[in-house]
Design goal:
The protein is an alpha/beta fold. It contains 14 helices and 18 strands. It has a 6-stranded antiparallel sheet. Strands 2-1-3-4-5 form a 5-stranded parallel sheet, sandwiched between helices. Helix 4 links the parallel strand 4 and strand 5. Helix 1 packs across helix 5, helix 2 packs parallel to helix 3 and helix 13 runs antiparallel to helix 14. The longest helix has 62 residues. The radius of gyration is 36 Å and the shape is flat. The protein starts with a strand and ends with a strand.
């Protein structure tokens, strides 16, 4: 029976006499007696309306059993029934969130008082829950839980999630129609177009459209977040164009915002009046659904833009790799033939220009092809990889000092690019006799690459990672941009400081901050 109260009576040892005396005080109370460990199992497996507990229980000091119950049942009525009737315990119990506090005594009326407190706390709890439930019979917590389950399912596409969201809303709100609309209120002739829908209303189907002036949604988009109409006729919609066209007796909808601009609405409706106003729980559901739709659409839009940019990048890389590289190779071959036939200082200038173009193509190709996040990482010996990178840099007079035994989780090829570009940058700006050190940061959050050259002025440190930035006429300006790209791809961070020798010190932090 709905009026019955199933009570879990928890004591240090099973107390059948106490449980029987409590049950005898009220026809509404059904009592199960249990120790604390078994009680937690019962709470997990069965529908319990109220817990009655002593203060100290075996394995649970003071109110720690209350804490254990509250961890999974934060609002369940909990009555503390204890022989320790001090004001200190009462104050502690109330502060910890007990529903009622009843001190044990020798009085024959103590179980009558206990039964009364149980009925009072459970009735108040049930009334509050009933107030939160809509016609579909769901509480705010249940609605949000179901919404979370759908929106976090990574196996579903946006269209599939939207369909399930509309089905969830129709069921929970007890309304037959649900739809996602697209609206451009700034158009010459503003319209509402249905993108996805649930229900059999002939005008609320995907692809259907109408002038915005005839849509309920015209009022929704003028609100801060949502519009709720539980009885259209009672609320004065009888002569409204929207009612004349759609004949919706009840409606609730929220604005969908994408990149701070109106996209449309997410709505639920019925041709019949609802009978009861929309609850706060249902309004919260609409707010969350609308915000989720906006977030997903924004994510989809950004993803599409990135995919188009990547396609253009790939096409650009193809042009560099073939359409430019091939004639450049021809130019280089012809240059060698010309040198066999002529001696001219102009040929040296041509060779320098060809080499520079070749370097530019290499760097831009690297930027185009390696701009994505790393996916194939492994633990890499930092010192060993630094020495390997040093071998491919033309540094006959430069010196490398490795002062680290650190290993980092990285994609070896990308990390090698970082070292090679930092080494080349040091040689280009500090001279061929530069000394370079690779070591650990003092706070153990990553590593550094430092040189003893002239350093980088503080006012230039934010600019050196930009594409094309270079203080050397022979440089491509892409070396440090590639370094930043490798760092970002790993989810690391990089900053520039002054080395002990007055040169540049690049600090790469690999640990999460």
């Amino acid at each position: 029976m709905a009026n019955q109260i199933r009570t879990l009576y928890v004591t240090g040892a099973a107390d059948p006499a106490g449980a029987e005396r409590l049950a005898a005080e009220s026809d509404r109370i059904d009592v199960t007696s249990s120790g604390p460990d078994r009680a937690l199992e019962l709470l997990a497996d069965e529908a319990i309306d109220c817990v009655v507990s002593d203060y100290d229980l075996p394995g649970f000091e003071g109110l720690s059993f209350l804490d254990a119950v509250r961890a999974d049942h934060p609002d369940l009525p909990f009555v503390l029934f204890t022989a320790d009737g001090s004001e200190e315990v009462a104050s502690e119990a109330i502060a910890a969130g007990v529903s009622e506090y009843v001190p044990r005594s020798d009085s024959p009326e103590q179980f009558d008082a206990l039964a009364t407190r149980i009925e009072t706390s459970v009735d108040a709890y049930r009334e509050r829950i009933d107030d939160e439930r809509g016609p579909g019979g769901y509480t705010t917590v249940e609605l949000i839980r179901d919404l979370y389950d759908v929106t976090t399912d990574t196996e579903l596409s946006f269209e599939e999630k939207t369909d399930r969201i509309l089905a969830l809303g129709c069921e929970r709100l007890d309304l037959p129609y649900g739809f996602l609309s697209r609206i451009d209120p700034e158009a010459e002739n503003p319209t509402q177009r249905i993108v996805q829908a649930r229900g059999d209303h002939e005008l609320l189907q995907p692809g259907e459209s109408c002038p915005l002036s005839e849509a309920y949604c015209r009022k929704t988009i003028k609100t801060d977040s949502f519009l709720a109409v539980s009885d259209a006729l009672a609320e004065g919609w009888e002569d409204d164009p929207a009612y004349e066209v759609f004949e919706l007796g009840s409606y609730i909808g929220g604005k969908v915002i994408v990149e701070e601009e109106l996209y449309g609405t997410l709505c639920f409706a019925s041709t019949e009046p609802r009978g009861v106003p929309f609850t706060d729980a249902e309004k919260t559901l609409i707010r969350l659904m609308s915000k989720w739709a906006g977030y997903e659409l924004e994510h989809e839009r950004v993803t599409s833009k990135l995919e188009r940019q990547n396609e253009r990048f790939d096409a650009f890389a193809s042009v560099l790799a073939h359409d430019l590289r091939n004639p450049l190779n021809v130019a280089g071959g012809r240059l060698e033939l010309a040198r066999e036939e002529f001696e001219s200082e102009h040929l040296d200038a041509i060779a320098s220009a060809v080499d520079r173009m070749d370097s530019l193509i290499d760097d831009v190709l690297l930027l185009a092809r390696e701009g994505k996040s790393v996916t194939d990482t492994e633990w890499v010996d930092l010192g060993a990889l630094a020495r390997e990178s040093w071998d491919v840099v033309e540094t006959p007079r430069a010196t490398l000092y490795v002062e680290t035994e650190r290993s980092v989780e990285a994609e070896p090829g990308r990390l090698k690019q970082l070292f090679e570009n930092l080494f080349r940058n040091a040689v280009e700006h500090a001279g061929t006799g530069v000394a370079i050190t690779v070591g650990d940061l003092d706070d153990d959050s990553g590593f550094y690459v430092a040189d003893d050259g002239p350093g980088i002025p503080a006012e230039d440190r934010d600019s050196v990672f930009e594409f094309g930035y270079s203080t050397d006429a022979e440089g491509t300006g892409y070396g440090l941009a590639i370094v930043r790209q490798v760092v970002d791809a790993h989810g690391w961070s990089i900053s520039i400081a002054e080395s002990d020798g007055g040169g540049a010190r690049f600090e790469i932090r690999t640990a999460a901050e």
